[in-house]
Automatic annotation (TrEMBL):
One of its GO terms (biological process) is negative regulation of translation. The lineage of its organism: Eukaryota, Viridiplantae, Streptophyta, Embryophyta, Tracheophyta. It comes from the Eukaryota. Pfam families: Rcd1 (PF04078). InterPro entries: ARM-like, ARM-type_fold, CNOT9. GO terms for cellular component: CCR4-NOT core complex; P-body. Belongs to the CNOT9 family. This is Cell differentiation protein rcd1.
Amino acid sequence: MANLPVFLFAEPTTALEPNPPLTDLTNVSVDELILALNHARTRERALHLLSQNRSMFDNLAVLIWHSFGTMFTLLKEIMDVYHMLSKPDLTEKDSTRVCNALALLQCVASHPETRVPFMKAKIPLYLYPFLNTTIKEKPHEYLRLTSLGVIGALVKVDDKEVIYFLLKTEIVPYCLRCMDVGKGLSKTVATFIVQKILMNEEGLRYCCIIADRFFAITHALETMMERLSEEPSQRLLKHIFRCYLMLSESPRACLGLGRLLPRMLNDSAFTDLLHDDPTVMSSFKQLLRKVHRDDGNKQGNPKTG
């Protein structure tokens, strides 16, 4: 994993503040809630209220980003649980508190004014440890899913700079790990992120230029397909199909897909999941036609992608 940016030196001091922190935060303004994050006594409650009501504040992301010490406080909340990530005894209370901080980071990642500065400050790197854990307990899963939500917010808007940043910081292996160990929603968001990367020309080249990388991605997709027979998910299946379809845009990858495409793609149990979505069914049929046609036409004339 890339090195974390080293710019966190000290917690904003509150020792000289003349006014004590508010203790009842139920009816205070968003500015007061953000200020309450600087106090240990009120931080947990402020995190909860800001996270719970973040959709009500249009400028919350801008206030969080520009207010003194707030990003430091959120990152400190995140880093404080790093030492517990390899242990199964992480509590739901600790996980929920960090997830509230992550939800506020997602707010910053989603806002057009703060998205690029958020990325250039390399804030997403602080989330990667949560994507790297293999423990499947609920507290770890909550952290995994909420962290994926932050990355998902970055890729929702088509921005080459975001994709280049994620490729440079090796997000794909982390997504593949989440596709393997995560629950249904984590698998879905991780697959969506990979799909958005594949939709970018440089992202597609990155995923297909090295055979081991291509095989790792197709193996993750196939494994999820196998597990879908036990827990069907139309939404996840859509993203899996779209990943395959984007991979088929690479001539080199398309040759491999003709041999690797899971037999289950021809299984009515999966196609039945798509009957309610004509667009995805059309993509599914297009994928089968493209892969089988290209496999037949290019067997004797392989190209590089």
